[in-house]
Amino acid sequence: MSWRVYLLLAVAVLIIMAFKLTKVLAIVIFLSVALVIVIAYFSKKGDRSGKA
Protein backbone atom coordinates (compact mmCIF):
# COMPACT_ATOMS: atom_id res chain seq x y z
CA MET A 1 0.00 0.00 0.00
CA SER A 2 3.02 2.28 0.40
CA TRP A 3 3.38 2.65 -3.39
CA ARG A 4 0.15 4.67 -3.41
CA VAL A 5 1.64 7.13 -0.92
CA TYR A 6 4.73 7.60 -3.07
CA LEU A 7 2.53 7.94 -6.16
CA LEU A 8 0.44 10.67 -4.52
CA LEU A 9 3.59 12.52 -3.42
CA ALA A 10 5.04 12.28 -6.94
CA VAL A 11 1.80 13.58 -8.47
CA ALA A 12 1.68 16.48 -6.00
CA VAL A 13 5.30 17.46 -6.75
CA LEU A 14 4.71 17.20 -10.50
CA ILE A 15 1.59 19.38 -10.28
CA ILE A 16 3.39 22.03 -8.20
CA MET A 17 6.36 22.08 -10.60
CA ALA A 18 4.04 22.18 -13.60
CA PHE A 19 2.12 25.19 -12.30
CA LYS A 20 5.46 26.92 -11.67
CA LEU A 21 6.31 26.40 -15.34
CA THR A 22 3.32 26.56 -17.69
CA LYS A 23 -0.25 25.32 -17.85
CA VAL A 24 0.51 23.42 -21.06
CA LEU A 25 3.21 21.42 -19.28
CA ALA A 26 0.76 20.87 -16.43
CA ILE A 27 -1.72 19.29 -18.84
CA VAL A 28 0.94 17.13 -20.49
CA ILE A 29 2.33 15.96 -17.14
CA PHE A 30 -1.18 15.28 -15.81
CA LEU A 31 -2.02 13.15 -18.85
CA SER A 32 1.26 11.23 -18.59
CA VAL A 33 0.68 10.60 -14.87
CA ALA A 34 -2.87 9.46 -15.63
CA LEU A 35 -1.50 6.98 -18.19
CA VAL A 36 1.02 5.68 -15.63
CA ILE A 37 -1.78 5.24 -13.08
CA VAL A 38 -3.93 3.35 -15.60
CA ILE A 39 -1.01 1.11 -16.62
CA ALA A 40 -0.15 0.45 -12.96
CA TYR A 41 -3.82 -0.32 -12.21
CA PHE A 42 -4.15 -2.85 -15.02
CA SER A 43 -0.77 -4.43 -14.27
CA LYS A 44 -1.78 -4.73 -10.61
CA LYS A 45 -5.09 -6.29 -11.69
CA GLY A 46 -3.25 -8.85 -13.77
CA ASP A 47 -4.85 -7.59 -17.01
CA ARG A 48 -7.58 -10.21 -16.75
CA SER A 49 -10.14 -8.07 -18.61
CA GLY A 50 -8.38 -8.49 -21.98
CA LYS A 51 -9.70 -5.14 -23.26
CA ALA A 52 -7.15 -3.08 -25.18
Describe the SSE topology.
Elements: H1 2-21, H2 23-45
Helix pairs in contact: 1-2
Describe this structure as you would to a colleague:
The longest helix has 23 residues, at 23-45. The chain starts with a helix and ends in a 7-residue tail after the last helix. The model has no long low-confidence stretch (mean pLDDT 77). It has helices at 2-21, 23-45. The chain is flat and about 35 Å long. With 52 residues, the protein is mainly alpha-helical. The chain is built from two helices and no strands.
Shape: flat
Q: First CA to last CA: what distance?
A: 26 Å
Secondary-structure-based class equals mainly alpha
Largest sheet: none
Helix tally equals: 2
Strand residue content: under 5%
Give the SSE string: HH
* Overall helicity: over 70%
Tell me the total number of β-strands. Answer: 0
Detail the poorly predicted runs.
Answer: none
- Overall pLDDT score: 77
Radius of gyration: 13 Å
Summarize the structure in short:
The protein is mainly α. It is 83% helix and 0% strand.
Give me some keywords for this one.
52 residues; mainly alpha; 83% helix
